[in-house]
Amino acid sequence: MRLISWNVASLRARLPRVLELLEDLRPDVLALQETKCGRDQLPLLELAAAGYDVVDHSQGAWNGVAILTRHDGAGEPTDPLGGLPGEDDPTEARWIEATVGGIRVASVYVINGKALDHPDYRRKLSFLRAMAARAETLAAAGPTVILGDMNVCPTDADCYAPERFTGTTHTSPEERAALAGVLEAGGLVDAFIHHHGEGFPADDPKGVDGPRYTWWDYRAGSFHKNLGLRIDLALVDRATAERIERVWVSREHRKGTKPSDHAPLVVDLRD
């Protein structure tokens, strides 16, 4: 079973790249973030022609999350739920979950936070606390995988220059503690670290499993210089983690025409 998480930074703008990924990698599940379109704007016909069903939580020009499932893959998505129970602002489309192939799969786009003194930073911490409560509920019920853009670097090793981020979002102790709280509450593991260990190098973007980072700024050649962050994660219950065959970042899909600033994170599970 192949699961992929990808912040596409606009599904309509990135549709050719999404269709390319579906053909190239044929995921059973593709969790998308920042779809940035209303329900009536989703390219459902094009995705169906590519062999995929869609469940979504859409807002319009901002945010938006979706789960795509392959027609001949792990099965149709069932019992979809849009919106994170306990979140401060349910009008923001940041969470969608459904059951696929016996796994409760969630796609999440965590609040950016903007700055440590910005109201969104406190909202981000609150959102992560709501995620922790939901993770505990889901994992208690069965296999759980939470895929998405967490907007947090779990450790300094997940940031190309942690000293440059001192006093900013994404690397603050409070954010890291809140993300760790999600893992602890659900008894989950970070699939990438579980598979590779903390020592996976950040300075070799072209290794067999791709780079450690998942996001690079569009500016100043950051991608080619590998000045990135690891903020896209797969949080997996421990039993499902034992099925992990490979976890990798598809650097190739960050290249080319009109790429997202994120690369897809791929989790391959043994059947």
Quick structural overview:
By secondary structure, the chain is α+β, with helices and mostly antiparallel strands.
Main features:
Deoxyribonuclease I, Chain A, alpha+beta, 271 residues, globular, 24% helix, six-stranded mixed beta sheet
Indicate the CATH architecture.
Answer: 4-Layer Sandwich
Q: Provide the succession of SSEs.
A: EHEHEEEEEHEHEHEEEHEE
The chain-level mean pLDDT equals: 97
CATH topology: Deoxyribonuclease I, Chain A
What is the H level of CATH, i.e. the homologous superfamily? Endonuclease/exonuclease/phosphatase
Question: Helicity, in percent?
Answer: 10-25%
- Whole-angstrom Rg: 17 Å
Low-confidence stretches: none
Number of helices: 6
- By CATH reckoning, the class would read Alpha Beta
Record field, number of beta strands: 14
Largest sheet: 6 strands, mixed
- Strand content is 25-35%
Number of domains: 1
Structural class: alpha+beta
- Major sheet: arrangement of strands: 3-4-2-1-14-13
Shape category? globular
Domain Endonuclease/exonuclease/phosphatase: 4-262
Family: Belongs to the DNA repair enzymes AP/ExoA family.
Cofactor: Mg(2+)
Region (Disordered): 252-271
Please write out the topology.
Blueprint: E1 2-7, H1 15-25, E2 29-33, H2 44-49, E3 52-57, E4 65-70, E5 78-82, E6 95-100, E7 103-109, H3 119-141, E8 144-149, H4 173-186, E9 188-190, H5 191-196, E10 215-216, E11 228-229, E12 232-237, H6 238-241, E13 244-249, E14 265-269
Parallel strand pairs: 1-2, 7-8
Antiparallel strand pairs: 1-14, 2-4, 3-4, 5-6, 6-7, 8-12, 9-12, 10-11, 13-14
Helix pairs in contact: 3-4
Region (Disordered): 252-271
Domain Endonuclease/exonuclease/phosphatase: 4-262
Family: Belongs to the DNA repair enzymes AP/ExoA family.
